[in-house]
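haha ok so turns out i had the wrong file open the whole time. this is the CORRECT one, sorry everyone. sequence first:
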Amino acid sequence: MNNKITITEMMDAAKILKQQGEKFTTLGIGPMSKPLIKAVLELAQEKDFPIMLIASRNQVDSDEFGHGYVMGWDQDRFVADVKAVEEEIGFTGLCYLCRDHGGPWQRDEERKAGLPVDEAMARCIRSYKHDMEAGFDLLHIDPTKDPEFAMGTVPFELVIDRTVEIIDELEKFRKEKGLAPVGYEAGTEETNGGLTSVDAFSSFIDTLVEKLAEKGIKAPEFVVGQTGTLTRLTENVGNFNRENAALLSANAAKHGVGVKEHNGDYLSDKILLEHPVLDITAMNVAPEFGTVETRAYLELAKVEERTVAKEKQSKMAEEMAIDAVKSERWRKWMVGDTATATVEEVLKDKELTAQITDICGHYTYETPAVKAEIEKMLKNLKEVGVDGEAYVNYQLKNSIDRYAFCFGMHGLTSKLLKALGK
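then structure:
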């Protein structure tokens, strides 16, 4: 990558700037598609801000585990494609490749299969090692999923012990292989949209930092804190709590650790503008940008319907809807009885199918039928004078820039580098 500084150095520079009175929050974006990555990097170059690309194991993973649903990426192909986009646009800024929610049972199929703990831990560690060898910059260690505790949360002490065990093994591997240093992120958001207790959060950081220090390992770059956000459908149904957010940030700062907020999708400008004031170090956003891209394709399909001869038209919208429903990935985002409906029941309900397509269209971009129809639609539109690719890029940039602007990120890369004398 074009990084002039490591993610740890970036965090050090951020602390220097904040001591000087600068206010900002940084952004992590899920790599939902190649067009999104291009839009992210172009905007980061234009507006001079650093960016973190946060890949879940479902999105990007080793071939031995079935690779990811985005572009069929394993870690090496993901890194290569990001580098190719950087070279294509002449990117010279700061882009960090990050593992989001790595850990045991973090692939959907691992959880459904209820793998034994030893196997789940071994698989996640192999995945992390592949991350490190491929050149990832930040690893989110998240051992908070466990089929044994399906009806409740994994005990606090077990989460810490597994986190330390994983980081310790990874650091030994990194040193043995002579790999570059990586940053770490620990903890997870509560999936019910509740708040992280300030006392529990503080105790988690205290104990984790102490146990890592016993192994000669520094504190993580980020600890995830829940401020009340929760993404469902295409809105944030949680209740952001600014007082809690400020206290979490203050507690993390005592250890030189930054608070990372997840589930930041669809928050209002009012709430986003408060984030730098509350000293929230970073936020992750992913599903929202997938929905933005899907809506752009569906809008283009309407244009195609009006401007291209019927016999030449693609079936993009139809194929995307069918594949989105058949993916069944919408179950994690839906609420009420809909989450348990059968595929057949959903496909008979046009309104529900449209809603699911809106939410989960991004899961279908690489299925053969949808990929072919998107290409056909874009070709048809180009022939009548409509640049569909540019339209998708425009919509994505606008959506991303709402966060970058509200977070005070414009011009931040130059400031970070200057703070370190680069």
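The domain at 7-285+407-419 is CATH 3.20.20.70 (TIM Barrel).
again sry for the mixup
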